[in-house]
Amino acid sequence: MTKIMMTAAWMVMLGCTMISLCQASFYQEAEVLHVTGKVLCQDCTQSYNEWAKGGKPIKGAKVSITCMDDRSRVIYYGSDATDGVGAYDLTLNKFVNGKKLNLKNCFARLVSSSDEVCNIPTDFNGGKSGIKLGRPSAVYRGSVKHVLKPFYYTTPMCDEPDTTHGKDDHEDS
After folding, report:
1. Cβ neighbours of residue 147 closer than 8 Å, sequence gap 6 or more
2. Which end of the chain is more exposed for a tag (fewer CB within 10 A), N or C?
3. Domain residue spans in the chain?
4. What beta strand segments (E) does 28-166 contain?
5. Alpha carbon of 57 to those of 36, 53, 135, 153: distances in Å?
6. Of 132 and 5, which is predicted with more confidence?
7. Residue 55 carries which DSSP code?
8. Neighbours of 96 (CB within 10 A)
9. Backbone angles phi, psi at 131, to 5 degrees
C-alpha cells in the first residue's frame, strides 16, 4: 500500500513539474502578452456588501500599461478603453526595439473615466498608483495572459480628503 502511495505521489510531482516546464516553454515562445481586467464604479452610499462587491462597470474608461528600462526611462506605453462590461485587454509585444521587455518594470494603472459622476480614481488593487505585472495568470500554446484584479473609480462624495499636510503648512510666517 505504501509503495502504491509513493508511486502515485511521484507521478503527481512529475506531472506538476512537466506542466510547469511546458508553461515556461510556452511563455518563452509567446511574443504577444495580454493584460486584462475590469474597471468598476464603487459607490460608498451603498451597504458594505454592495460597496465591496457590487461595482458597476464603466464603459469607455481608459487603462494604460507603461514599461520602463533599467534606467527608469519609458520604453513602452499602451492603453485601451473598456467595453460595455468594463473589461479591457491591453496587448503588448514582448520585444521593443529588438530588446526583450523586463515585465518586472511594467505596470498597469487607471488613466481616465468616461463616467461624469464616477471619475475619482481609487487605489484599490493599485489602480491609481499602478500595479506591477507579476506571474502570468494563464499560459497556453504561446499565449500569455495577465489577469488583474478590478480597478475602481468612485464619486467625489466618496473621495477621502487629503490629510497628509499638517496644520503647520497653513500658518503664516
Report:
1. 36, 37, 137, 138
2. C
3. 30-159
4. 32-42, 56-57, 62-68, 74-81, 87-93, 95-96, 99-100, 106-112, 120-121, 131-132, 138-140, 143-147, 151-154
5. 14, 12, 26, 10
6. 132
7. P
8. 13
9. -120, 130
Residue 154 forms beta bridges with which residues? 42, 120
- Report d(CA 105, CA 68) in Å as an integer: 5
**129 compared with 26, residue with greater pLDDT:** 129
Per-residue pLDDT band at 48 (split at 50, 70, 90): low
State residue 3 phi and psi, 5-degree precision: -65, -40
**The three grid cell numbers given for residue 34, joined into one nine-digit string:** 495580454
Q: Write down the pTM of the prediction.
A: 0.72
Measure Cα distances from 101 to 36, 94, 134, 146 in Å.
18, 6, 13, 15
Which fold, 30-159? Immunoglobulin-like (2.60.40)
- Which residues fall within 8 angstroms of residue 105, CB to CB, at 6 or more apart? 67, 68, 69, 70, 132
